[in-house]
Amino acid sequence: MNWKREADRIAAEARGRHGEGLACEWLRDQGFEILAQRVKTPRGEVDIIARQPGLVVFVEVKWRAREADLDFAIDQRRLTRVARAAELLWPDYAKAGDDMRVDILLLAPGVIVRHIANAWMPI
């Protein structure tokens, strides 16, 4: 076993959880109810599932140590995985008449949260 690699993975997971916690706080401040976190499906994982009246949002959270790194934190492949997972999870979280969207929250220390609403647009 590569102990350094394992230590790096554990540290990265802790940073991710920290970022997701901050994202949940931000979403609550915006009037969202947090329904679930870190929901895994065969198609991928959704970091946060949140609700406002008439809307269910599947959120991908990216936490980076530096603001400059946020510009490269998300790519089409990762976003596609979140969207595919959201398609599977939708029936479990939606109510009749709800809309659905996939959002991205980008966070870094000392930086205002970057919220990209309705980030998923199929090609």
Automatic annotation (TrEMBL):
SUPFAM superfamilies the UniProt entry points to:
Restriction endonuclease-like
One family name in Pfam for this protein:
UPF0102
Source organism superkingdom? Bacteria
User: Any signal peptide, and if so, which residues?
Assistant: none
Coiled-coil stretches, from where to where?
none
Similarity comment text for this entry: Belongs to the UPF0102 family.
Q: Which protein, by its recorded name, is this?
A: UPF0102 protein PQ457_05660
Provenance organism? Novosphingobium humi
Source taxonomy: Bacteria, Pseudomonadati, Pseudomonadota, Alphaproteobacteria, Sphingomonadales
